[in-house]
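#struct-queue
[09:14] JT: dropping the first one here, sequence first, then the structure tokens:
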Amino acid sequence: MDYAGKVIWITGASSGIGEALAEAFSAQGASLILSGRRTEALQAVADRLPTPAMVLPFETTDKSALPAIVERAIAWQGHVDGLINNAGISQRALAIDSALEVYDRIIEVDLLAPIWLTQLLLPHMAARKSGLIVGISSVAGRAGVALRTAYCAAKHGLIGYLDALRAETEVHCGLKVHTVLPGSIRTQVSVNALAADGSAHGKTDSAIANGMDPGECAARILAGIAAGEREILVAEGIEEMVAGMRFSDPEKLFEMTAAMGGQLAAQRDAALVP
């Protein structure tokens, strides 16, 4: 696709999938609005892009600041053609051990924040009868897996919100709404995930370490958008299989995930025995 003259706004753009998406959209001619919390990292990404880029740092959960942020984004070029809700945080803890604050934080960052930002930008896109809205959910947004109860709840919720938003806006407003379900991608998602007490997990899972390159993930996302895929699965191996089993054989999926979760819970109980 040719994105020349288009403005694409990406949250979580300083690294990982967000950074790779910025590079991919820029390579196809788009001007970029790059958002996240780390100004210097965002600027480093902007400096590498071949097309104009605006660095617009903000905290996605600062609800009171969002209206002014959206106004600044629109004012930069007079329009925003696409919003990529990519910023997020994961979890690595059993539910029985996780503080309630972990649920507050993950659901606020992964579900409420993208909803807030989309809602504020929606009137602008609806008035123009044109717009691209992409939400980065997860395979964990389709299949519940152990150590990620808060993350799964948020990512399932994001799929539901985007599906309903698409139903309302695709025909009436001409908006294109896409949900992306990545599997394991080589990013800092595991390192930055929340442990039971809300601290950073601080370690990279083997699945993440051996996961898909972010550039390949971004290429598949853009290809899916170009092909008009409303839900874009970016996963391989067992993760691709799990995503498909949610519809083809849910009982088998539940048995498989229960067995895996049971092993993790048993290891936790064994570690507590003095």
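[09:21] JT: and here's the second one, same format:
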Amino acid sequence: MVRRVERDGRHLVEKRLTDPARHDNEVRALRALERADLPTPELVDERPGVIVMTEMPGERLDAQDPETRLARLRASGPLLRRLHEETPPKGLLPAPDDATIIARYRRAGGPPLPLRIPPASGLVFCHGDWTDGNLLATGAGITGIVDWEAAHVGDPIRELARAAWGAGRKDARSAHALIEAYGADPALVHAWDAIHAAELWLWFAKAGPPEYLHQLTRELHEWRRG
């Protein structure tokens, strides 16, 4: 749960996490980013289950019109690359286990996908959920990167691919814009698409709502025919 609070005239955000591991993970990430040249919240206070941080300015990208969202996703690409150049703190949660994702997906009976794990491209500081719901903007620039509970040390191209694939489901132009702005080889990025499709399908299968799962299932069957 996330809510706005005010202390001593300061506008803050209070985030409550029931999972101690994810709580500690976000705290570690925010502390590590205090000196980074990135628009991230400042950690103000933390106690078991509660993190208090500064409120970042701006509006979520997923609340914006398609053209504005596209421009601001493009603006986020260099920031993602900059994050990947930061030194990650010790003790972050493990990176996603792609072999397990593939095995779970096949056991669950999802639509056939060309599932394979692409060659590794390094290990870097990853946000873990770089989506338009976790990016804030005003004007032409990104003013806030929030929700660091899934931060980990992982593959930079995998993280970019997850962001691009998810953004591209709303607007196909978004994937190209984000990849180009980051400065990556599109072929290397899109090699991860099937993994992210399987990961999202498993999430919808577990957490719903059912109509999201049905829609994605239809999309993945079309992907196979395409």
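[09:30] RK: nice, looked through the second one.
[09:31] RK: The longest strand covers residues 10-16.
[09:31] JT: good to know. The beta strands are 2-7, 10-16, 43-47, 50-54, 59-60, 124-126, 135-138, 141-145, 152-154.
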